[in-house]
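One record is given unchanged without comment:
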Amino acid sequence: MKDKLKIALIHHEVRHAAPKENKDLILALAGKAAKRGARVIVVPEMALSGYCFEDRDHIAPYTETQDGPFARASAKLAKAAKVFFVAAFAERDKGTGMFFNSAFAFGPDGTLLSRYRKINAESRWACPGLPRQRNVFDTPWGKGGLLICSDSYHSLPSRITALRGANILFLPSNWPPTRQFPACIWRFRALENKLFVAAVNRSGVESNLDCSTCRSYVYGPAGETLLDKGTQASEAFLCDIPLDADGRLPNIGPQAEFLASRRPKEWYKAYSNLLFFKNLSQTLKLPAPGAQDAHFFAPGRKANPLPFLEARLDTLLPENLAVLPPWPFEAQEVAKLGSVAKAKGIRVLTALEAKDGTIREYLAFDPAKRVVAIPKEGPIPPLHLGPLVIGLCPISDMLHPELALSFAKKGCDLLLALGRDLGPDDRFIASMRPIDQLAAAVVARTGATVALVPEGHSPPRGAYVPEGGVAQYTLDARELRDKHFQDRMDFEALFQGAGLDWKPPSPKKRPSPGTHKVPSGHGGHGGHGGHGGHGTHGGHGGNGGHGGHGGH
């Protein structure tokens, strides 16, 4: 059918160290899938040999070159069936003898369109792939992109692949559901990049890797589930991808528009190399880290947050942090917020809202003084409030991993978005954003959610309340500043074209970070200058983590 693209995910029981059996099974399943109408066929990660190997000598007999027997058989199948075929196996580079965990895309004429070498490579035997790989290829329906398994854990590889033009991402994987919640990660990558994600997993058990309950998934650009299947045997899962009236992937235009709305000039900190700095507090001159008991208030769609806070002051202790959603506070209400903070000995963070829902000014109070951050041209600087360093953004900006990463590398403990409404996707995005090495929270009138950085292979943990509730959580900056970044990235792809109109800034004395003065004439509330560029909702709100889960 011209209105659908049928793809096949070869979810098979991979046998360890049995390349002939695996190859025969793969080709048989792929051939049947082609006869059933599949136009793109994808196999799991390390589909030829299995995954678990102790060292280079252990896997050496099961490596092949990119023109070896399996590659030739893959090209032959692609040409005979007139399909796109993605093969994945342990590659031995013919020139260097180095080993890589690789995926290869062959076109309907049998030519090799793209080779991708996994960046989060298996440390026991594989060399990491280079950041600037040609992992995008043309198809009649749009551009396809290749990543492998845990390369999708970190945010930037998927974003970079989308910026290279990929409209659908193919992910050969070996990812048990008990480790790092792969389904959520793959849905997250689809949602934040507005692309289709087709992740093919496997079945079978080898060594300490139990894939018997693995599932394969296809997600649409709005995060919708198009396929969710598993088997303990071997099967080609077929999935129909919708096409537009021209027979093209329907996300091409909206995705391009979304990516064009990025503001990379505000995110240059994302490429900073902090590998050799073990104490971010000292290096970045941050406030002394400590634990902060935080209360995130969701008063209701039409409820003024100030009375909602006042009615619950007995639940707050001195030095607690109260975060309120934006509201068009009057001057006397702003003064009252300061009085409450001082009398109760608490910290209060909120924002003044304009009629159109945009944030006019962020307001932060501690028992001693009022601190104000005003959105202007360029990035909002991190806010130092008590023991925390906080990055502030509209909810829509939560979709951009570059923003989250730049705040994380500025030492922020928390990425905080304030707005009117908390939708299901906003909540999901906030729950996943801590992968980028900082806690994340969204506080809106209709709900509040907060999530912490994952520990090991566990999902992010946190709290959520619907409207009328208060989410309480302790944020410990001592833990949140222990950050680990995957920086083997093509950072230039993130900033392509951002410097074309660059002009040297005028030298000026830099203010102390986190201290934002009220402009003259604003007198505590007055006529706050507006800011049209940052909406409080406008959609959904954007590697941290481990150095890859390559060893499973």
